[in-house]
Each structure stands twice: as C-alpha cells, then as structure tokens.
C-alpha cells in the first residue's frame, strides 16, 4: 500500500473531525481495556506468564537462525515446503508462483497482517487471481477498498450503518428491501455469501500467529472459524508469515497463548486455535494436498542486535492500541501504513524508513500505558525515543522545530538564564492574560491556540513559587 | 530462491555475531526442543480433583456459550442427541465421523435419527465428532485430524455435537500435549504431530461490527458437548 505516514498530522486532523470514526473509537475505548483488565484479574499467574513470555521470545531471538532451520527441517519432513523471502517483493513472487502452479482462479484468505505488509491482494489481482477476504472485518474493508485500522479488529473504524451501506452497494444480487440494520443480519449475509466461496477456492492463504520449531507447525488463532475453512477446504494452503513468529516447543506456545487472547480481547482463550503440520496424510479424507510456508524477513533481521530488537517479541495482540490515548483519538488509518498504534510507531519506521514514518514515534504522549499492558513487556516508549533521536540526527524535522529544540536545549543547560527567561515569560503572560485568565491566540503558539485556549499563567514560575513557599516554612 | 535463504540466515548470524558452526548454541537449541519443559502452569485447574476438573470444564465451556449435557454412558447418547435436536427444531439427521470412539453408540435404539458416516458437506446441518481431550482451564476441546476424523466436520455443520469422555478431561493444554505425544508413541514408536490439532472454545463468533459479539460467524452457530461419565468398556 502507498504509505501516508509522512502526513500523520493531516491524517490525524481529519480523523478528529470524522464523527463516525469518533463514535467507533468510543466503542473501542468502552470495551477492550476493561475486558483485558477483567481477564487478567482472573489469572493470578498473569505477571509471571508475561515474564516467561518475554524470556521465551528473547531466547528465540538469540537463536533465531537455528530455530528457523529446525522449523524448516520439520516442515520438509512432513511434506511441506518452506520459502524464504528477504523482502516483500520476493514474498509476493513466491505466493504468485504457488497460486499459478495450482492453476488458481480464486484464493480465500484468513486474516494476515503479513499479507497486508506485502500487499498481496493487489499483486494477485494484477495477475488475474481474485483474492477473497473471509474474516468479517477484512471482508468489509476489502469491499470498501480500505486497509485495516486495527491489527485484531480491522474494520473497527466503521459503525454499523456504514457496513450496511457497503453491503447494499456490493451485494446487488440480493433484495434491496431486505432488513440489514442489525449486526446479526450483516453477519448472516456475509456468512451466506462467503460459504460457497470457501468451497470453490483453489488456494487458501492464512497468516500464522506462531510457528513451532519442535513440530514444524503453524498456528492460527481466530474467533470466526474462517481461517480453518480457508485452509481446510482448498487444495493448497499457503502460510504467509514472518521469521520472528517462531517459538521452540508446544509448551512455550501454550504460555504465549495464555497471554494472547487475554491481552487482545479479554477472552480466556480464542474460539479456534489451530495447529497445522504439513499437508494431508495418507488415509486422510480432507485437508490440503500442499502446504507451503513463506517466511518473510523484510527488515526484521536488521533489527536484531539493535536498540529495536525488543519489538520482534510482539505477538500482535493489539493491547497497546487499545490503551493508547493517541490511537484512541485518531484511529489506525492516521498512522498511514499497515501497523498503527504504539507497536506500529516502532515497527513502521524500520519497515518503510524513518523518512516516511518519522512522524509516528512523535505521535505519543509517553504516558507509558502501552508498555504497562504489553504481554511481552516491550519497552515501546523507550524505542519511540530512539526513533526520535534518529530522526533528529538525520535532520528530518522542519528547521523551525530544530531551532526551537536547540534554543530550549541551550536554556536548559544554563539554569540561571533559564530561570531568568521563564520568569520574564511568566510575568508578561500573567500580566497580559490577567483579565480573561486565558489566551485565544498567542504569537508562535498557534499550533496550540488554533484548537483550544491557552490558560494564562499565574505570573510566577513554579521555581519562584517553590522558593517562596520554602521561605515561608522556614 | 536459495540465495534468499542464505541472505536471511546470513543477516541473522551477523546480527547475532555467530558463525555457522556455533556448537554451544546448536546444543542449547537441540536440548530445548527435546525437553518439552513446561513454563508456569496456572493453578486454576491443576489443584482440582479429576471430578472437579470436569465440572470446571463444563463451567468454562458454558461461559463461552457452548452447551453441555452429562450422560452416564455411551448408551445414553442417542437419547441426548434426540433431545437436543428436538429442542432446537433441527431435522433428525446427523453426519458423524467414522471415529472408533463413536462406534459403540447404540443408534438403533433411536431409529428415527438418520445417520450418515463420513465427511461433512455444505448441506449438513448437524455433525457429531469425537474428542481427543477437553482442557478444563478454559473449557477448550482438543480435536485431532486423521483418517477417522476429518477436520472440516468441526467447521462446516451449523450445529457441532462433540462426544467427550470424562476421563479425557485434562487440567491444562500441557497435559493435552503430553497425552498426544504418548498416544503417538504407542502406535508407531515415535511422535508425529497430527496434521491438524483444533482447540475449540465455544461456537464460532465475531465482534467485527461495533465489538458486539455475534455467534456463528463462519463456523458452527452452536457447539454442544456431551460429556460421557462412564469409562469405555474395553
């Protein structure tokens, strides 16, 4: 997809004025965080599981090459195939080649962020193969030619009425007078229309939440069951995934699964957790005849051993989105690329470059909620600061911004001068704003006052007030 | 694209500052993969007696909108199924997997139920499968694929009935894996992962529209679990 991360400010501005989006984000805020809190409260061992989850992934990252080789060997031993893709273009080539070899006309798809990352749908369409999204949220946004706005709830930026409108426009073969105002009716309509597509498709593409080195398995976690129909009813199953998804054993993945659903939706366990190992066996009466795993790197190996390595522990639960005040205000599309929210602000600059995505690490209040809920204990704010440093080093911000920052740094390094200047500033602003108690406009601060009033200071700086108070006490 | 493989692995090894022949790391990985070491296991189910684990399984499964019925033995299954079908106004037709676990059910006591054994099709409304295990901690069914248990029967029919023997209830996922590994060891001497292991916790659902949960997204609209208390006669 064409990234618009550089335009984060414009995107965010538009998002703030979008009433449907704001209604939808209100629903996100009222649900996810509270559900997570309740689920965590029911699991007294949760904090220990988080420590272990972090340790498992750290161990894997330290031995990533070896675990990938062990995984590959197992997959091949079971009759599957493994394809390595250094970048998105190579991954697209692999998928297209497999689809062509299978003579595929239609391809059903389970939800996969890697598929979004490499833009596989457009690529298949350009080559005459029709991709069909089957996750309800993904299906809705495919009809609308949109991208996901949340890694676990792709259509969460929409309200029900918009989905109804989309279905009425797209499903012209159905009675225009049918009732379609309720979520139940929308679900049933999608179910009825997609069922024959599952049965007719030639290839099924799913992602993977985890890969297990011990058994050569790929694991998908869904609530709808669409991923299972996708991979079971087609002759060819392609698992589109990335190198950091690997874990050593079934025991390790059990620990991570205990963290995933609780952090994501507050469920005790997702409805369907499916562990797939190779193609159909001798004697089996169903299951795919071919099982292909495409392993994408796309910049991940370059994060290993750097200050950004910890983001490779991410299990894509979305908890950081659900607890982020910035995401909660502007939604996922404002981030301008595949991954939004705090994890996106850290990952995206690596995947598409700090020049395009340097704005994202600035889209943070540094409140730290993301880190406090991350099941993998990823220090997201710290890594956003690292990106800010890089952005500054590479002179990517506007010159006014840099000049302001330099001026501030100069003052901050000279405390007496800092105090002198701020005392003058506070006194002037306190005096000029004394009648109204606020400013509607201020020179050099339109960025603030365009959208809200600036409260007038009391006339003295904090340092001055503090000194006075200490004197009174003495 | 063999060079992509080399390139990716080469990048990883450079980042990890490791040559191709780092024996200590290779041994660490080999041992880790072989030992199946459990991590922290929540006490929720492990501290319970086997009977209480079955109760917990039932409670947790019902919490996620599955329905559960307890029957004394396989002899009672046809009656329980007939009740269920009647209760939901479903036709007395059933596709069931050729699972040997289901073979001892005396269907001839309920001749009104039309049975078909085999793989589920698009038109089957009600399907019945056997279970491999039931995980008490979250009310999760563990089903495995094989010649006698096609996976699609777990997903295509609108109504999925699963027969689970009480002794198949395990406290945790880890205990499920242990039983799975043991089963395979008995048959051919070495453990081979089944092609598909399905963990199923309640009927299919979605919350993709305004986070409102609707059951029956793409998989079964209903999940009914028959827990059979009696151990098998053989």
Would you write up a description of this structure?
The complex is a heterodimer of chains A (474) and B (234). Chain A is an alpha/beta fold. Chain A is built from 22 helices and twelve strands. Chain A has two domains: 43-301, Rossmann fold (3-Layer(aba) Sandwich), CATH 3.40.50.10420; 399-473, no CATH class. In chain A, β5 (210-212) and β6 form a beta hairpin. In chain A, α3 packs across α12 (250-264). The radius of gyration of chain A is 26 Å and the shape is globular. The N and C termini of chain A lie far apart (65 Å). The model of chain A has no long low-confidence stretch (mean pLDDT 95). By secondary structure, chain B is an alpha/beta fold. A six-stranded parallel β-sheet of chain B has the order 1-12-7-4-2-3, with helices on both faces. Classes of the chains: A alpha/beta (474), B alpha/beta (234).
Question: What is the CATH T-level topology of the largest domain in chain A?
Answer: Rossmann fold
**How widely separated are the two ends of chain B?**
54 Å
Tell me the overall shape of chain A. Answer: globular
Q: What class do helices, strands and sheet pairing of chain A give?
A: alpha/beta
Question: Brief description of this entry?
Answer:
The complex is a heterodimer of chains A (474) and B (234). By secondary structure, chain A is α/β, with parallel strands linked by helices. Helix content of chain A is 51%, strand content 11%.
List keywords for this structure.
heterodimer, A: 474 residues, alpha/beta, Rossmann fold, six-stranded parallel sheet, 22 helices, 11% strand, B: 234 residues, 2 domains, 12 strands, 22% strand
Outline the secondary-structure elements:
The complex is a heterodimer of chains A (474) and B (234).
Chain A: H1 8-16, H2 19-41, H3 46-62, H4 64-77, E1 81-85, H5 88-101, E2 106-109, H6 113-118, H7 120-126, E3 130-133, H8 136-143, H9 160-170, H10 183-200, E4 203-206, E5 210-212, E6 217-222, H11 226-233, E7 236-242, E8 246-247, H12 250-264, E9 272-276, E10 290-296, H13 319-322, H14 325-330, H15 341-352, H16 354-357, H17 369-373, H18 380-393, H19 399-412, H20 415-432, E11 438-439, H21 446-449, E12 454-455, H22 462-473
Parallel strand pairs in A: 1-10, 2-3, 2-4, 4-7, 5-8, 7-10
Antiparallel strand pairs in A: 5-6, 6-9, 11-12
Helix pairs in contact in A: 3-12, 15-18
Chain B: H1 2-15, H2 23-35, H3 43-46, H4 50-63, E1 67-71, H5 77-87, E2 93-96, H6 100-103, E3 114-117, E4 126-130, E5 133-135, E6 140-144, E7 159-165, E8 169-170, H7 173-188, E9 196-200, E10 205-206, E11 214-215, E12 222-228
Parallel strand pairs in B: 1-12, 2-3, 2-4, 4-7, 5-8, 7-12
Antiparallel strand pairs in B: 5-6, 6-9, 10-11
């Amino acid at each position: 997809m064409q990234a618009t991360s550089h335009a984060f400010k414009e995107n965010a501005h538009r998002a703030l004025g979008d009433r449907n989006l704001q209604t939808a984000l209100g629903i996100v805020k009222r649900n996810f965080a509270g559900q997570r809190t309740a689920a965590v409260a029911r699991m007294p061992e949760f904090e220990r599981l988080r420590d272990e989850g972090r340790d498992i992934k750290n161990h894997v990252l330290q031995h990533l090459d070896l675990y990938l080789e062990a995984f590959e060997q197992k997959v091949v031993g079971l009759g599957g195939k493994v394809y390595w893709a250094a970048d998105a273009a190579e991954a697209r080539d692999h998928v297209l080649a497999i689809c062509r070899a299978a003579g595929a006309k239609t391809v059903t798809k389970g939800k996969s962020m890697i598929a979004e990352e490499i833009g596989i749908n457009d690529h298949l369409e350009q080559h005459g193969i029709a991709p069909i999204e089957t996750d309800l949220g993904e299906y809705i946004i495919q009809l609308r030619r949109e991208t996901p706005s949340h890694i676990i709830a792709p259509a969460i930026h929409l309200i029900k009425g918009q989905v109804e409108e989309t279905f009425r426009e797209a499903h012209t073969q159905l009675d225009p007078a049918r009732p379609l105002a309720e979520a139940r009716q929308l679900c049933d309509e999608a179910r009825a229309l997609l069922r024959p597509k599952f049965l007719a498709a030639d290839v099924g593409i799913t992602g993977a939440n985890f890969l297990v080195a011990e058994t050569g398995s790929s694991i998908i976690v869904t609530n709808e069951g669409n991923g299972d129909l996708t991979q079971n009813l087609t002759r060819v199953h392609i698992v589109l995934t990335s190198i950091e998804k690997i874990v050593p054993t079934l025991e390790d993945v059990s620990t991570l699964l205990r963290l995933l659903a609780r952090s994501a939706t507050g469920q005790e366990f997702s409805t369907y957790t499916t562990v797939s190992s190779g193609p159909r066996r001798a004697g089996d009466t169903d299951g795919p005849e071919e099982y292909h795993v495409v392993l994408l790197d796309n910049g991940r190996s370059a994060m290993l051993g750097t200050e950004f390595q910890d983001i490779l522990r991410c299990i894509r639960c979305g908890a950081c989105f659900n607890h982020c005040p910035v995401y909660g205000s502007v939604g996922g599309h404002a981030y301008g690329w595949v991954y939004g929210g705090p994890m996106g602000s850290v990952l995206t600059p690596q995947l598409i470059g700090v020049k395009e995505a340097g704005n994202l690490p600035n889209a943070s209040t540094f409140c730290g909620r993301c880190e406090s809920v991350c099941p993998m204990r990823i220090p997201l704010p710290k890594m956003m600061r690292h990106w800010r440093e890089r952005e500054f080093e590479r002179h990517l911000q506007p010159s006014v911004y840099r000049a302001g920052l330099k001026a501030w740094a100069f003052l901050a390094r000279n405390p007496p001068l800092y105090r002198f200047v701020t005392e003058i500033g506070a006194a002037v602003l306190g005096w000029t704003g004394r009648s109204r108690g606020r400013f509607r406009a201020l020179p050099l601060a339109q960025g603030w006052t365009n959208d809200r009033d600036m409260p007038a200071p009391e006339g003295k700086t904090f340092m001055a007030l503090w000194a006075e108070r200490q004197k009174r006490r003495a | 694209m063999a060079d992509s493989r080399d390139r990716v692995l080469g990048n990883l090894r450079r980042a990890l500052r490791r040559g191709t022949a780092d024996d200590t790391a290779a041994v660490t990985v080999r041992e880790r993969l072989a030992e199946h070491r459990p991590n922290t296991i929540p006490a929720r189910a492990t501290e319970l007696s086997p009977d209480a684990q079955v109760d917990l399984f039932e409670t947790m499964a019902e919490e996620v909108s599955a329905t559960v019925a307890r029957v004394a033995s396989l002899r009672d299954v046809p009656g329980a199924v007939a009740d269920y079908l009647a209760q939901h106004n479903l036709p007395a037709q059933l596709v069931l997997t050729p699972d040997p676990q289901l073979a001892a059910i005396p269907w001839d006591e309920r001749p009104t139920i039309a049975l078909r054994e085999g793989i589920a099709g698009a038109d089957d409304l009600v399907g019945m499968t056997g279970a491999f295990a039931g995980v008490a901690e979250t009310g999760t069914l563990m089903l495995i694929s094989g010649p006698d248990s096609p996976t699609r029967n777990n997903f295509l029919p609108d109504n999925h009935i699963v027969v689970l023997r009480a002794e198949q209830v395990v406290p945790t996922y880890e205990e499920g894996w242990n039983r799975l590994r043991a089963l395979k060891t008995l048959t051919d001497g070495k453990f081979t992962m089944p092609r598909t292991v399905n963990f199923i916790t309640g009927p299919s659902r979605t919350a993709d529209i305004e986070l409102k949960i609707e059951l029956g997204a793409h998989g079964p609209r209903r999940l009914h679990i028959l827990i059979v208390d009696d151990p098998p006669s053989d």
